[in-house]
Amino acid sequence: MVDADVAGDAGRVVVVTGGSRGMGREMCRGFAAQGDRVVVASRKAPACEALAAQLRDEFGATALGVGAHVGRWADCDALVDRVLDEFGRIDVLVNNAGMSPLYPSLDEVTEELFDKVIAVNLRGAFRLGSRVGKLMADGDGGSIVNISSIAAVEPSPVELPYATAKAGLNALTVGLARAYAPKVRVNTVMPGPFRTDIAENWPPEVLQRFEDGTIPLRRVGEADEIVGAVLYLTGPTASYTTGSTIKIDGGLAWST
């Protein structure tokens, strides 16, 4: 049996959702740099294809861009089918896609907004994790990483639908880890505030508060600072790690 944690001659097949920008983009670059074959998936196909082309040019990697709205069950299945048609297997899945739209107040959250947040942050990860986990368990094994948020354990009123979905994602990690053991490892990375395109919409006072001491490290994270944890959890040195959570937030959660 091939150990899916160890890249073969052609490298592992890695699928990253929400992969075209922000932290997902940096994860794709990290996997490509170590010789993995990378599938960049997100809602906008042109952005995925553009990054895949950059990975091929910069790293000589095998890379594929696929448009997929992970909030839609059919899109999740289509993504898996496309990867299987192209490569025949999936060794690593990173459920990174997420969204947290603003709303004026909790009582003004619409059913449409709530359903959309749950769909993108949780439903898609459930469908992809369940289907890919089964494929891995029936094959040579593999690794799944779910990208959650510290909002899952320290929810605030301004992001409660998102926090609810991420709390569900944490539970999903444990359930999938037990369902598909021993051949499939499933873990969570739980980031705090990171400087991505989403952070461009933060009011200046929010960033200032983080840097003034709310975060023990006195700054927000940079997108590439999540890569090490993801590469670790999907690599051979994490071979006895499953159902676990790694918090990457500069010490913010549980710091007070």
UniProtKB/TrEMBL annotation:
GO molecular function, one term: oxidoreductase activity, acting on the CH-OH group of donors, NAD or NADP as acceptor
Oxidoreductase recorded as keyword: yes
UniProt-listed InterPro entries: KR_dom (IPR057326), NAD(P)-bd_dom_sf (IPR036291), Sc_DH/Rdtase_CS (IPR020904), SDR_fam (IPR002347)
Top-level lineage group: Bacteria
Keyword Oxidoreductase: yes
Keywords: Oxidoreductase
UniProt xrefs under Pfam families: adh_short_C2 (PF13561)
One example of a Gene Ontology biological process annotation: fatty acid biosynthetic process
Domain Ketoreductase intervals: 12-201
Family under the similarity heading: Belongs to the short-chain dehydrogenases/reductases (SDR) family.
The protein, known as: NAD(P)-dependent dehydrogenase (Short-subunit alcohol dehydrogenase family)
Organism: Pseudonocardia sediminis
Taxonomic placement: Bacteria, Bacillati, Actinomycetota, Actinomycetes, Pseudonocardiales
